[in-house]
Amino acid sequence: MIKINQIHKSYLTGQNSLHVLKGIDLNIEAGEMISIMGASGSGKSTLLNILGILDNYDSGAYFLDGIKIEKLTERKAAQLRNKMLGFVFQSFNLVSFKNAMENVALPLYYQNVPRKKRNLIAMEYLDRMGLKDWAHHLPNELSGGQKQRVAIARALIGKPKVILADEPTGALDSTTSLEVMDLLQEINANGITVIIVTHEHDIAKRTGKTIRITDGNITEIIVN
Amino acid sequence: MFDLDRWQEIYHVLKKNKLRTFLTAFGVFWGIFMLVIMLGSGNGLERGVTQNFGDMATNSVFIWTQQTSVPYKGFPRGRNYFFTNEDVIAIRHSIPEIKYLAPRIQAGGFMQTNNVIRGLKSGVFNIMGDYPAFNKIDPLNITTGRFINDLDIKEKRKVTVIGTRVVDILFNKDENPMNKYIQIQGVYFKVIGVFISKRTGEQANQENQNIYLPFTTLQQTYNYGNAVGFFSITSKDDIPVSVVEEKAIRVLKKRHSIAPSDESAVGHFNLKKEFDQMQGLFFGIRFLVWIVGTGTLLAGVIGVSNIMLVVVKERTKEIGIQRALGATPWNVISQIITESVVLTTFAGYFGLVVGVGLLELINFLLGSSGANTEMFVHPGIDFSVAITALSILVVCGVIAGLIPARRAVSIKPIDALRYE
Questions:
Q1: What chain B residue is nearest to A76 in terms of C-alpha separation?
Q2: Among partner residues A75, A81, A115, which is closest to B330 by beta-carbon distance?
Q3: Tens digits of per-residue pLDDT, B280-310?
Q4: If contacts are CB pairs under 8 Å, which of residues 112-171 in chain A contact chain B?
Q5: What is the pTM of this model?
Q6: Which of A55, A78, A102 sits opposite B326 (nearest CB)?
Q7: Is A192 exposed, middle or buried (0-12, 13-18, 19+ CB in 10 A)?
Q8: What pLDDT digit, counting tens, does each position of B16-69 carry?
Q9: Which residue of A26, A191, B339, B377 pairs with B48 in a disulfide if CB–CB is 3.0 to 4.6 A?
């Protein structure tokens, strides 16, 4: 599903260049559930951003489901993100003035699905998350766990091939963290590739494989 | 384009900071409001002044006698002379470019004692001797009866056409003046027509006190011999009136032994020249109004652009989220431009409505107060100008949104997402 060869990435900060990724090779098969661990500044978030086509890389090659991701126009990148990828963020990143249902429906809005139809689909996904009764609530009326479940529903509604989760439990207490992990595992069981960036060992242990990144290199791959 | 989510987002953004939205909108509102008020007032002024011309043919020239200022052919300077009936014939024959030629003679009326009497009523009025052609050059609004015609001239009939003010003074309220007789400077004339001036204000009052007699009748009745007071001349439609003016003056100078170099012996007034000057003035006013108006409008639009930049900056993260979820740059750009257009168009439309409303109110007040509005008649703007202003607004809205929108998509999605 995901294949990257010798990815390099450096950031220019003023006069200095910061070499963040120093030649990463990684192969992730369809249906895998992977966690990426590393100290802050190790490059794990950068790697996830490159995988999510939110950021570009300097050299190497990245194939997503056989498509070479290289020098895409913003338009093409947006379409790929919309169709292939689902994002789950630490801070949920729900749109504050849209209610839960409209937030879930957002990816379909960008596919020009008519409002009625996309809201109907969004209700289905919210139902699956057990949030049907909360569909018309704004994000600030929901608890952290509920917000993250809305975000996961939103990530799923476009029927993506890969879910990218950046510290999905970072802002949640342990009970809701477990619930969210149950959800992600369930999603994975349905055949969707899941990649989680985390620094919690409990979370990492629940994935099939843990990749440890240190100073821009993969130093360890642990099969859980 | 018409998805509810788009409008929901616009509503949210505009509502989020109401005062800011209001002040920004006010900039545009004020711009278009000023433009409408200034254009409308300019139009009012123009209408007022042009109405003072009545329906007068603008390609007219008026010629009268003055004292000579250059000795010539044995005559001294400072000589008085009169135009005559023969001059009329000579001018008509030698200048084919003339459309209407109306000689006129005036029989007193200026600052005199009562010169017109009917029974126990009397008044002071201007007595004019005219040809039918005069009503073509400076038309009157004949309310009943008719103006002087060729037969009146030929038969020297003792008939008269009088103004409404004359009727008011000489006749009882419900009396019909038609075919009644009035005594003008000792001679009885039959009323065959009543008119009302096409001018406004004081000029109209003046004209409504006029009494018109057939030219030939007046000449004979009051012993003017063959003297002519002055000429009103209109040129044919495709010929500049200055050509006729020059030729007529040349003919008259020759006939009355006036030096060709004498500039002051023949008095003349070219209405076309005056009219053109006036037109130039109004063009200047309109030009200035558009410069000032569009300048104000531009300031308002720049305000919108500025605020949109702030909005885009505030919403950087939100835009980042949208882009992560698959919003294309075009989605983002069109959203921001729609916001900008909605803001400018609403504010501008409001300014247009309030501006037109105020003009209408002024109109109403001017009308109902009966004020002397000689110089300011029916202020207002054309529908086409309003449409033009609105289209300018929409275009301005697009331009105002363009820069912020480009800024919004120039940031990489990941930087936008990380933005706090």
A1: B328
A2: A75
A3: 988 998 899 889 888 888 888 888 899 999 9
A4: 115, 154, 158
A5: 0.73
A6: A78
A7: buried
A8: 888 989 998 998 899 888 888 888 888 888 887 777 777 777 888 999 999 988
A9: B377
3-state secondary structure of B295: helix
Please, which residues have CB within 8 angstroms of residue A52's CB and are 6 or more apart in sequence?
A81, A85, A87, A164, B324
Query: HSE of B121 in the Cβ direction (CA atoms, 13 Å)?
Result: 12
Does B210 lie in the same domain as B285? no
Flag whether B61 is in a domain.
no
The answer on B95 and B125 residing in a single domain is no
Residue A74 with chain B: CB contacts under 8 Å: 328-329, 409
Residue A43 burial (CB < 10 Å; 0-12/13-18/19+)?
A: buried
**How far apart (Å, rounded) are the C-alpha atoms in residues A107 and A85?**
10
What span, in angstroms and rounded, lies between the C-alpha atoms of B115 and B185? 5
Residues of B in contact with A47 (CB under 8 A): none
| Partner A contacted by B321 (CB < 8 A) | yes
* B414: contact with A, CB 8 A cutoff: yes
Q: Which residue of A has its CA nearest to B9?
A: A97
**Residue B355: alpha-carbon gap to chain centroid:** 20
Q: What is the DSSP string of B41-87?
A: HHHHHHHHHHHHTTT--SSEEEEEE----S-BTTBPSS----EEHHH
Domain membership of residue B231 as a residue range: 67-107+226-264
Contact with chain A for residue B12, Cβ under 8 A = yes
